Every structure is written in structure tokens, then in C-alpha cells.
């Protein structure tokens, strides 16, 4: 018990914590995820639909861009399925 009273203040003094790392769409961020967000925003503003367009020297920017492409591809795929369902109902 006395060991805990020694270790706990020491850990707090040294800044040892178990804080969760920030993530952006499943990717671990270094810092505040602003690079990921910038890549996502850029892809959205430029209607990027191919991950090959997400090729910059910044890994975090690229991951944000790729997240947008993957998310957008999923929504396009769902829209196409909905259109097919509508066509079947019309028949």
C-alpha cells in the first residue's frame, strides 16, 4: 500500500498518463489531426474521387484525403443501389 503512495505521485509528477491518442477516421494523429482534416477538406472541395489524387509529402494530409474518397465512394455505391431498387419497383 505504501508503494502505491510513492509511485502514484511520481507518475503524476513525471506526466505519465494513459491518455488516448487522437484519431481521424481510424488513423492515429500526431497532435490535433489538423493535417488529416485539411486533406479531407481539400478532397471535398475538389470533388476528389480517386485515391491517386491524394499523393503529397504529408502522410496525414493523404490519409484525410483518402478518408474522403473512401467515404464518398461508399455513398455513391449506396446511391447506385437505391437507383437500382427504384427501377425494380417501377417494373
3D structure, described in words:
This protein has helices at residues 2-14, 34-45, 59-90, and strands at residues 23-24, 27-28. It has 91 residues and is mostly helical. The chain has a domain at 21-78. Helix 2 crosses helix 3 (59-90). It is elongated. The protein starts with a helix and ends with a helix.
Briefly note the structural class of the backbone: mainly alpha
Spatial arrangement of strands, main beta sheet: 1-2
Radius of gyration: 22 Å
* Mean pLDDT over the residues: 79
DSSP helical segment count = 3
Beta content comes to: under 5%
Low-confidence stretches: none
Question: What percentage of residues falls in helices of 4 or more residues?
Answer: 55-70%
What is the N-to-C succession of helices and strands?
Answer: HEEHH
Largest sheet: 2 strands, antiparallel
Number of DSSP-assigned strands: 2
Straight-line N-to-C gap: 76 Å
Silhouette: elongated
List the helices and strands and how they pair.
Blueprint: H1 2-14, E1 23-24, E2 27-28, H2 34-45, H3 59-90
Antiparallel strand pairs: 1-2
Helix pairs in contact: 2-3
Concise summary:
The protein is mainly alpha-helical and 91 residues long.
Task: Please supply descriptive tags for the structure shown above.
2 strands; two-stranded antiparallel ribbon; elongated; 63% helix; 91 residues; mainly alpha; 3 helices; single chain
